[in-house]
Amino acid sequence: MSQWLALTLAMAAACAVVLAIVVINHRRVGEDDDPTQTPDVMEYMTMMIGVVYAIVLGLAIAGVWEGRGAAQESVRLEAQALHEVVARSEVWPAGVRERIGADVDAYVRHVVGPEWRAMAERGEVTPRGDELLGRVRRTVSEYRPADAHEAGAYQPLMDQVAAADDARGLRADSAGATMPGVVWFGLVAGALVAVGLIFALQIRRTFRELLLAGLYSALIAFLLFLIWSIDAPFGRGVSATTEPFLHHFPHLGD
């Protein structure tokens, strides 16, 4: 099921449930019931709960978006470091350059392929990726520079390999969901309370009131879906991309 279809169904279901409850509840209200007699304190409490829940939703969206941004930044740093490894090895002999380039290509090809799918499906990086990056490190560290000019590139190359390894660690930390289960419980419970308070105000079956109730419930469903979509930086709709790798290694995107 596509993300957009799931979002549409979720919003439609939220509207349908709320409107159905409104209609059923209206049929049970007696003729002598006066909706204008809602206590002022009830309106105040409803408003305050709505404001508090709106703040919580805003913080949740900001949190998952920040996590998504950190995940994308880790991808950018890793791709940049690997690009520097290949570029800085140009001062070394052709045979060494080719081995380093081949090892980096093998690693990047694995990252944008099997490992990216593993992060999307299981929220974790693969042991094969660790092995391929270790091969890059060994190829660089085992070479013995022949002169001072080649020796000058050795330490910067090792630094860039270390930077790539560090960025890989950050990417692994960002691969899973960022929102704890208890937070999701609070968000869903808050949504039920916020929507349920519609009925505390004795909403009627006028077109205007039904429209507002439907839009309100659909908005909350959309915001919860948005948080869920961003929550796994590599696994759902609004996710980090492989664009930094393909930008620096365009030949691997064919």
Task: State the gist of this model.
With 254 residues, the chain is mostly helical. The protein has 8 helices and no strands. The model has no long low-confidence stretch (mean pLDDT 82).
Describe the overall structure.
The structure is a single chain. This protein is an all-alpha fold. It is 78% helix and 0% strand. It is built from eight helices and no strands. The longest helix has 49 residues, at 40-88.
Describe this protein with a few key phrases.
78% helix, mainly alpha, single chain, 0% strand, 254 residues
Shape: elongated
Structural class: mainly alpha
What are the segments in which pLDDT stays under 50 over at least 5 consecutive residues? none
Query: In this structure, how is the largest beta sheet organized?
Result: none
The count of helical stretches stands at 8
What is the alpha-carbon Rg in Å? 27 Å
**How do the SSEs run, as a string of H and E?**
HHHHHHHH
What's the overall average pLDDT, rounded? 82
DSSP strand (E) fraction?
under 5%
Helix content: over 70%
Distance between the termini: 27 Å
Per DSSP E runs of 2 or more residues, the count of β-strands stands at 0
Topology of this protein?
Blueprint lengths: L2 H26 L11 H49 L5 H29 L4 H15 L6 H27 L6 H20 L6 H25 L11 H6 L6
